[in-house]
Amino acid sequence: MDRTDGVNGDPISTSSFGERISFWRNVCGFWLLGLCNNFAYVVMLSAAHDILKQQETQNTTSPTPTTVFPEALGGNRSNSSRYDCNPVSTAAVLLADILPTLLIKVAAPFFIHKFPYGFRVLLCVATATASFLLVSFSSAVGMSILGVIFASISAGLGELSFLSLTVFFNRTVVGGWGSGTGGAGVAGAFLYSALTQAGLSPRVTLLVMLVVPAAMAVSYFFLLVFPPSFPQWHCNEGGQELFWDRSPQERRPLIMDEEEEEGKSEESHAGILTCKEKLVILRGLLKFIIPLSIVYFAEYFINQGLLELLFFPGYYLSHAEQYRWYQTVYQIGVFVSRSSLFCLKIRKLWILSALQCVNALLLSLSVYYQFLPNAPIVFAIVIYEGLLGGAAYVNTFYFISKETGNREREFAMAAASVGDSFGIALSGLTAIPLHNYFCSL
User: Which residue range forms the structural domain that includes residue 353?
Assistant: First the structure.
């Protein structure tokens, strides 16, 4: 007797208790991997205001070895700007948090198959651990930025590796992964905001979070149930049988038949994609990558370019606290929408792109004209922004997994992950001059 899952109608065998346990172990395992993979990345963005507040303190006082992330009780009162600005935009931290990820996502899909999955996961765990240690013990902004870069390397390598990994399991794990990455946003932003609000120093807070890289290793090596042919400690040569398949009517391969015939070789018969085939796949992926990039450009233009400037002096939260909770409520919206794949699918991704651009325009005007009356209205807009961004991410990868053929799928899932990172990096480059303009007013 079979039943269908709640995501895509793939059959799930209920013939044995062991198979049901394995299925749910894999869904939960990918949820935890998504949570752990994005956790350090989110925490570094939540700590961005504190990282840069340290620089301001060092410019005006004599730092001691213990001066790490001094609490910003009211923002920068030493400048004459009406926006209570840090000397440097939080977009500087965003760039450190996304550029290494972008470089990895652009280059790695062409050679990452030469490294076994087990090795990749250990590297992710090591770099995430290093990021927390470097930032927590930092005595200078440069050292903090290096820690942020390590977090970016871990998140970028992990995302493309785990998205590729989903092709060895039932397609339902894509929903688990997406929901877990959304959960990372809520957990990372909320824990950082709540623990620092409760009185813990940012240093102690980051040291507590070292449990997360360890949880990633446990989730991967002890929770997932791998197929017998899975290439755990040897290179993936692309010829192994995938765990699931679908009917030809459901597939719309990104490599067209005539191009595939033209590019046939001994390699491609073995299941290995040629460089020419990979470029053809990338061209076919543009219909997914471009809308995803636009959504994330507008989203992070808001988060790292505008939210720092939306400060309400009469509110009961300080400037730093308002910024942290903006990040937290945004991540709540992301988590809800990234978990929505189990009940709702959105194929027209351009609609999400257009709506996110409207959000960016609205908040840009609100920063310049200062017509929003209070922080709760900004919180509501930011939650909505998170809903749009999370929906764009999870639906993009769901439809890529559904519409690509078996040989293409592992590469396509990894290569398409460049979309969100490209949009985020572009937003960071745009947000820095915008920050300087507003702060000069």
Answer: 13-61+80-240+272-439
